[in-house]
Write a structure and sequence with these properties.
CATH class of the largest domain: Alpha Beta
Bound molecules: guanosine-5'-diphosphate, magnesium ion, zinc ion
Number of domains: 3
Radius of gyration: 21 Å
Mean pLDDT: 88
Helix content: 10-25%
CATH superfamily of the largest domain: P-loop containing nucleotide triphosphate hydrolases
Order of helices and strands: EEEEEEHEHEHEHEEEHHE
Shape: globular
Low-confidence stretches: 182-196, 290-296
Number of strands: 13
Strand order of the largest sheet: 8-7-6-9-11-10
């Protein structure tokens, strides 16, 4: 039978298949590639005809396979930002790079729109309107934009990331139309338990949301030469030199720098590119740490 892994606690896998929930064990002999992850589509066999138990026999081909957080088959990365706490633009840039490296579509979710005025909106758009195709202004408080966000997520699997207190949990709650992440346990499903410790996939009405604290510590695994390719607002192969880094004074006829000058590429966004380029080049470990509420 085919099923979807929605939870993994100590190698006991919760597998959803044909409206039933099975508790499964893994495949036995394990190679590194065989680590079963939340989000995996798997083939499993029933162990008992009367109980909902099974053994996973294989992992079906993946769209992507993340190490940290350890999840698979993510379609969308919901990058949540707000006016308060103020956006960490470098973190947003890094999350976009992380998404693109992993074949994930970034969705910029500008939450707490009830606090924004027009210049707040214009400012964040000036940074990302040519970078991220899907940008939504939302408010978990007033429900503004939630229908639009739900339409984007329908038939997809999304994982939310962003600074602490921007409203990730609040957004998940309003999208799922119930309190699943505030410790308000529903006895029947036990949802809401341990949400900061393990990954869990919630699904309802064709929307799948991966809840994971794993983004408090993610890594960008990218060769600095290739960083610019992960900047959708930068032109490709338009500079005089093939190996142009778009960062140095002596690089004449750099198409990127010309576009910055012409205000076609945002100056601050470009400055952050130079900073990240140099960090990667100098081999600074690209472990990005940020605290999420409730994490240590
Ligand atoms: N004004 C306003 N506050 C919000 C909104 N969404 C969340 N909050 C508040 O922001 C705080 C942090 O929210 P939470 O969901 O815990 O953030 P998380 O740490 O990213 O999961 C809480 O006090 C929420 O009530 C919103 O759309 N507007
Ligand atoms: Mg939270
Ligand atoms: Zn260049």
């Amino acid at each position: 039978m085919k099923g979807l892994v929605v939870k993994n606690i100590s190698n006991k896998y919760t597998v959803y298949a044909y409206n039933k929930i099975y508790t499964c064990v893994g495949m036995g002999k394990l190679k590194t590639n065989d680590i079963i992850k939340v989000g995996d589509k798997v083939e499993f066999e029933k162990l008992d005809n009367t109980k909902l138990t099974g053994r996973i026999t294989s992992i079906l081909p993946r769209k992507n396979n993340l190490i940290r957080p350890p999840v698979a088959n993510i379609d969308l990365l919901g990058i949540v930002v707000s006016k308060s706490p103020a956006p960490d633009f470098m973190l947003i840039d890094k999350l976009i790079v992380f998404a693109l490296i992993n074949n994930i579509t970034p969705v910029l979710c500008i939450n707490k729109d009830d606090l924004n005025n027009n210049s707040d909106r214009e400012y964040i758009l000036s940074q990302y309107k040519n970078v991220v195709k899907k940008i939504v202004f939302v408010s978990a408080k007033t429900m503004y934009g939630i229908a639009e966000l739900k339409a984007i997520i329908t038939n997809k699997t999304i994982v939310f990331a962003g600074q602490s207190a921007v409203g990730k949990s609040s957004l998940i709650n309003v999208i799922m139309e119930e309190n699943i992440l505030t410790g308000d346990l529903s006895e029947k499903t036990q949802r809401g338990k341990h949400t900061t410790r393990h990954c869990q996939l919630y699904f309802k009405n064709k929307i799948k949301i991966m809840d994971t604290a794993g983004f408090s510590n993610f890594e960008i695994d990218c060769d600095y030469h290739k960083l610019a390719l992960l900047y959708p607002d930068f032109p490709v192969n338009k500079c005089k030199y093939d190996m142009c880094s778009h960062t140095k004074e002596e690089e004449k006829d750099c198409a990127v720098k010309q576009l910055v000058k012409a205000k076609k590429i945002n100056q601050e966004r470009y400055n952050r590119y130079v900073k990240l380029y140099n960090e990667l080049k100098n081999g600074k470990p690209q472990k990005i740490n940020y605290k999420r509420k409730g994490s240590k």
